[in-house]
Amino acid sequence: MANLAQPNVRSRSGDTMPPKGAAQANAVAAGNTTAGGQGVTLVLAWLAVGLPLLWGVLQTLQKTLALFK
Fold first, then answer.
1. 23: phi then psi, degrees, rounded to nearest 5
2. If you write DSSP's letter for every residue of 1-69 in order, what string do you get?
3. How far apart are CA 1 and CA 21, in angstroms?
4. Each residue's pLDDT tens digit, 31-58
5. In b/e form, how buried is each residue of 8-41, taking b as 16+ CB within 10 angstroms?
6. What's the predicted TM-score (pTM) here?
């Protein structure tokens, strides 16, 4: 959550800069969050990457164990 009580800070060039976190607070206020269909897409993307990675790690461990028998 942004500290909205913090005043704008002037930079060296004289431009005002919004307080830290103001952009994030504005995005949430505008409804631009990762809720909804994007969450499902994110999970599916991680599964598409994670499952083959897990399979490769398991195959490597199985072949490594065969070396020590």
1. -65, -40
2. ---TTSPPEE-TTS-EEPPTTHHHHHHHHTT-SS-THHHHHHHHHHHHHHHHHHHHHHHHHHHHHHHT-
3. 7
4. 555 556 799 999 999 999 999 999 999 9
5. eeeeeeeeeeeeeeeeeeeeeeeeeeeeeeeeee
6. 0.45
